[in-house]
Amino acid sequence: MPSRPQRILSTLIQWFDADYQPAGADAVRAEADRVDWLRCIPFIILHLGCLGVIWTGASPFAVGAAVALYFLRMAAVTGVYHRYFSHKTYSTSRPMQFFLALCGGTTVQRGPLWWAYHHRHHHQHSDQPDDAHSPHVHGFLWSHIGWITSRRNFPTDYSKVRDLDRFPELVFLNRFDAVVPLAFAFAVFGLGALLKAHAPGLHTDGWQLLVWGFFISTTALFHGTSCINSMAHLMGRRRYRTEDDSRNSFILAVITLGEGWHNNHHRYQSSTRNGFFWWELDITYYLLRALSWTGLIWGLKAVPASVLAEGERADHDESVEAATRAHAAHPEYSSLKRIVPTAAAIAVATVNAAQPSMERRVDLQEIHRGAGSPAQGAQNGAGP
Ligand SMILES: [Zn+2]
Ligand SMILES: [Zn+2]
User: Fold this and answer.
1) 87 C-alpha vs ligand 2 centroid, how far in Å?
2) For the whole model, what pTM was predicted?
3) Cα of 78 to ligand 1 centre, how many Å?
4) Do 46 and 219 meet the contact criterion of CB atoms below 8 Å apart?
5) Which tens digit of pLDDT belongs to each residue from 89-124?
6) Cα–Cα distance measured from residue 171 to residue 175, given in angstroms and rounded to the nearest whole number
7) CA neighbor of 226 nearest in space, from 103, 122, 154
8) Under the phi-then-psi rule, with left for phi > 0, alpha for psi from -120 to 50, and beta for the rest, what region is 281?
């Protein structure tokens, strides 16, 4: 059992070297869940850094940069960490794979192998006791943020990512997972400082851009991504009857650039697209598709026709069920059987109601035309 100072020292080293595990990673993973506050200090600083806005203020450029960096890096979380490293839904070259891992690193969601290991584990044990972030097993708060602070969830289980740990450059980025985020933070600060010197009209500076482009944008990115762990297993509709409680949600698809179609994804993980049908907005897929036209990535995997047909059948069955439920609740309004005859009756009544006025019009014309007609004369002659 390590002494307290040893434990503190180990944790401080782990801030920079995530694979430093003197007690062994397996032993740590076997522990019970508990928040490791010391280990989480960088994560807490990330959130507290947002308060820097009190001192730096805002500018349209800085706010715009925060929004742009949110969506660009969301594309890296979903298109790289999720759809490439976790599920290998497309192929790429080794240099491009490294570049994609660097892009993933800017999201400050730890290393690509750690991310992929946890995500694969989630798919294996979705909403079961072993699922590290199921809202049904551990509650909403734990699934959203708690699990990432737990000591046992920090080490990477390399045995779950054997296809990735044969690349030393990826293992390096995974082990020293603070390198890319720190470089990214410095770059954002440096850009702000440069703009202050060379484009004063933008009214921004290094500290302001650091607060907006790094702290606020990254914190929002964390919570946006976390909504898939928490909300996407609670909110939305279930097209496929998967064994977990994953759901499809348009709102979550917007904030996560397509990951909101989580029930689709749990039904078929290997496809590059999560929005299975054209109306299911999946910006990440559109971006990956566009990237494939450059030849930098290839072999995007499609959704099998059988899974699409299953989805169409499920949608059809659900609409029939919904119509049946609506009829049971409001039989006087809901049924087409009643609406169609009513509409037909209204139409017939309208046509019939139109006849008298038409006849009247005809009568008037005839009276007018017939003023000097033989019939009129005959009528006149027959009069007294
Ligand atoms: Zn899930
Ligand atoms: Zn997945």
Assistant:
1) 7
2) 0.83
3) 13
4) yes
5) 999 999 999 999 999 999 999 999 999 999 999 999
6) 6
7) 122
8) beta
